[in-house]
Design goal:
Length: 90
Amino acid sequence: MHENSGSGAANGHGAAAAGNAEQVKEHLRAARGAATEAIRGATRDAQIWGRSRFADLQGRIEAEPYRAAAWALGIGFVAGVLITALSRRR
């Protein structure tokens, strides 16, 4: 009579399953490495873009400080009006 152990080891499938598991683990490790490198690359690109935009903005502010101050005051005034209106509504 054939014994059914449920693990597949009795008929030789246990070694094949272990081999497949190792292949899946290696595939997942490779995918993790690729995803990590992609994220690092995207992070570097975002840092370069952000630094570039900040440098551009800083240059524009230094070139026209009065205009930048006027914009900052205008934005602050509008934000204050909105916050006041929202707080009075409650």
